[in-house]
Write a structure and sequence with these properties.
single chain, about 130 residues, alpha/beta, 4-stranded parallel beta sheet, 5 helices
């Protein structure tokens, strides 16, 4: 029986889902609770009513489509490794907090992270598999 591809979708994939080739996505996908948090903040950051409505629609769609993977104790422990690897790569970890917490969630669950912004996760190759879509 063939192995089913599983993956955690980064916020960038969820936001741009209409522009992503479905063949580039895993057979089974999930989102991190932190992605849901970023999507929940989105409508409040919109500059126009139309954009606010579009972002609210995306939030509701994502919440109805996936059960968000929580950021638990294992992900908190993984964050230490992610933080250290990011710093060792010469990057500023604190400026990338949501991305790194999502990466920590992927590490804790040992699943690849699918993203439209693979450079956001530079330096993490020994901790997670990053799949550019």
């Amino acid at each position: 029986m063939p192995e089913v591809a599983r993956g955690l979708l980064d916020t960038s994939v969820v936001v741009d889902i209409d522009r992503v080739d479905p063949a580039s996505l895993p057979d089974e996908s999930a989102i991190a609770a932190l992605t849901l948090a970023e999507l929940a903040a989105g409508p409040h950051a919109a500059k126009t009513e139309d954009e606010r409505a579009r972002r609210q629609d995306r939030l509701q769609w994502a919440a109805a489509t996936w059960d968000a993977v929580p950021f638990g104790a294992e992900a908190a422990r993984a964050y230490g490794r992610v933080f250290a690897a990011t710093r060792a790569a010469g990057r500023t970890p604190r400026a990338r907090l949501p991305d790194l917490l999502i990466a920590s969630t992927a590490a804790a669950h040992n699943i690849p992270l699918y993203t439209r912004n693979p450079t956001d996760f530079d330096g993490l190759a020994e901790i997670i598999t990053v799949v550019a879509v």
